[in-house]
Amino acid sequence: MFKINLNFMRRQTYVIKKNMTDHDFLMRIRIGDLLIDESGRKGRVIAIDRYNRIGEVHYYFRRDKGGTILCII
Length: 73
Hints:
This protein has one helix at 23-27, and strands at 13-16, 34-37, 42-53, 56-63, 68-72. It has 73 residues and is mainly β. The chain has one domain: Thrombin, subunit H, CATH 2.40.10. A hairpin with a 2-residue loop joins β3 (42-53) and β4 (56-63). The protein is globular.
């Protein structure tokens, strides 16, 4: 009988606020982490897109339950 250690599967839970300006905080979010925003939407991150616009950085966190959480810095 094999014993499987699932500790490596544990991920962090992050709360994202609209007025967040911490670039390092958003860079720590990884695929598999649980995100919760101010309006109560939550879900596991399945994809992360980061786009550099003129003077802004857009972070798109796609959730497993559908939808996207957008952060603009």
